[in-house]
Design a protein that fits this description.
This protein has a single domain, classed as Rossmann fold. Helix content is 47%, strand content 16%. The strands form four sheets. A seven-stranded parallel sheet has the order 3-2-1-4-6-7-11, with helices on both faces. The protein is globular, with a radius of gyration of 19 Å. The N and C termini lie far apart (47 Å).
């Protein structure tokens, strides 16, 4: 808050979960804009193809094979960044896994593993980042949560719990760092549904592949926001107007959102495809292959979010728009209650 910011083309950026999806797209975009990338994930082949692509285009990137559920391996990511590039300016905690199942269908070891990757991985990464950034008097920690950090949906209880946890952890960490005048920003990114291979690699208990709930955005929309946060800071940034509507609905009337998700089994049915599940996932084992950014969603997608560009990236406009939107939404809920 208020500290001198480093231009993106002078930054060293650590990105976890960089083998595919949002992490991979973010690494490519930031490298195009001049940042030096430390790409971390479990899939060594995918990291190698990513870093080769970046270096062929004139950028700088280093792969680090690591499982964020292991604090020693997370510490090694930071150590290798320091040994090769001397510092870390931005650390993006992005790695995540998912299980599509009811609570009764979840096994204890699955619950534990998901929390270790999604939540503890963020906590371990943030701890290492703080230690490295204090030495140079500032930096930015970017934690990738979800709109499910605000509002849970059926079939994703463990995932929603992890994303709620990321929001709470980020808030507490932000306060601690502001209190110490550390010069370290903590930014929570909350993507709406994004078309990434995340769903291809998710574990499913329903015999079919899961999918993002429409409307769906492309990974580039999130990558652009993460790059903006690395250079300009922020607090909480929602990617996609659809996600913001869900969060506002939860704030105004959780029971109304319940009714929407339950009506015609909407929340359940929209998350499942009719494609048979191949029973291959990355919960305990890394994904395989060369890695890719886009997923297999077959419906229309949105390459960008006008809402996010206009409101979320401009705090004053966001606050003004939020006040107007809340007034209108409150009036609508009041009328609905009287009808």
């Amino acid at each position: 808050m208020g500290h001198k910011r480093t231009p993106l083309n002078e930054q060293v950026v650590v990105i976890t979960g960089a083998s595919s999806g949002i992490g991979r797209e973010t690494a490519r975009l930031m490298a195009e804009r001049g940042a030096t990338i430390v790409a971390a994930a479990r899939n060594e082949t995918a990291l190698d193809t990513l870093c080769s692509e970046i270096t062929v285009r004139g950028g700088r990137a280093m792969p680090v094979v690591a499982d964020v559920a292991d604090p020693l391996q997370v510490a090694a990511i930071g150590q290798q960044a320091i040994e090769h590039f001397g510092r870390v300016d931005t650390w993006v905690n992005n790695a995540a896994v998912s299980i599509y199942a009811t609570v009764e269908q979840l096994e204890p070891d699955e619950m534990r593993r998901l929390i270790e990757v999604n939540l503890l991985g963020v906590m371990y990464g943030s701890r290492v980042a703080v230690q490295l950034m204090r030495r140079r008097g500032g930096g930015t920690i970017i934690n990738v949560g979800s709109v499910l950090s605000d509002r849970a949906v059926q079939l994703q209880s463990a995932y929603s719990a992890s994303k709620h946890g990321i929001a709470g952890f980020s808030e507490a960490l932000r306060l601690e760092l502001q209190q110490d005048d550390s010069g370290i920003d903590v930014v929570l990114i909350q993507p709406s549904s994004i078309n990434t291979p995340f769903f291809t690699w998710a574990r499913s208990r329903f015999g079919v592949k899961p999918q993002p709930i429409p409307p769906v955005y492309e990974p580039s929309a999130v990558a652009d926001v993460i790059a903006h946060a690395a250079e300009h800071g922020g607090r909480e940034i929602v990617v996609g107007g659809a996600g913001k509507m869900l969060s506002l609905g939860q704030w105004l009337s959780p029971s109304l959102v319940d009714r929407y998700l339950l009506q015609g089994r909407r929340g359940f049915e929209q998350q499942l495809t009719d494609k048979p599940d191949d029973r291959i996932d990355n919960l305990f084992e890394p994904s395989v292959g060369a890695g890719r950014t886009r997923g297999d969603f077959e419906g229309p997608t949105r390459p960008d979010s006008i809402y996010t560009r206009v409101f979320e990236l401009h705090p004053f406009v966001k606050r003004l728009g939020l006040a107007i939107g809340l007034a209108m939404a409150t009036a609508g809920v009041w009328r609905l209650g009287r009808s």
